[in-house]
Amino acid sequence: MKVQMSRFEASKQKTIVIVGIVFLLLIGLLYDASNGFYVLKHSRSMYGMAFGLSLTAFFAGLGESLSNYIEAKDKVSHPLPKRVFYLLLLLAALAAVGFLYWFACTYSGIVEI
Q1: For the chain, what is the radius of gyration of the CA atoms?
Q2: N or C: which end of the chain has fewer CB within 10 A?
Q3: pLDDT tens digits, 49-65
Q4: What is the mean pLDDT of residues 7-21?
């Protein structure tokens, strides 16, 4: 059975998608601005710029969520070896996110980094 959406529901979904894309691009622009507009300077086209900014925002969000998850597990009352393990895990996770960002930007063919 096919479900019909009203015009209001369809326009509401389109508005949510457009606002989400604009928000993603603005977050990417803010992160790129803090890095000296590297993606904007080295993108080959407008599509490359939008793709690079969205990648920047996506991987920044991924790094933030990973760091918050690891930080939530770390407690001051834990013994020192366990706290060092969480610190190394945090550094490895953020290095992996940085490598994935570099790999995605370099091998996408749209953004030269």
Answers
A1: 19
A2: N
A3: 888 888 889 999 999 99
A4: 86
Encoded tokens for 38 = 């590297």
- Side-chain half-sphere of 11: how many Cα atoms within 13 Å? 3
Residue 2 falls inside a structural domain: no
**Number of domains forming the structure of the chain:** 1
Residues 54 and 25: beta-carbon distance below 8 Å: yes
Write out the two tokens for 93: 């996770």
Q: The pTM is what?
A: 0.77
Q: If you count DSSP H runs as helices and E runs as strands, how many of each does the chain have, helices first? A: 4, 0
Q: Does any domain span residue 112?
A: no
53 touches 62 (CB < 8 A): no
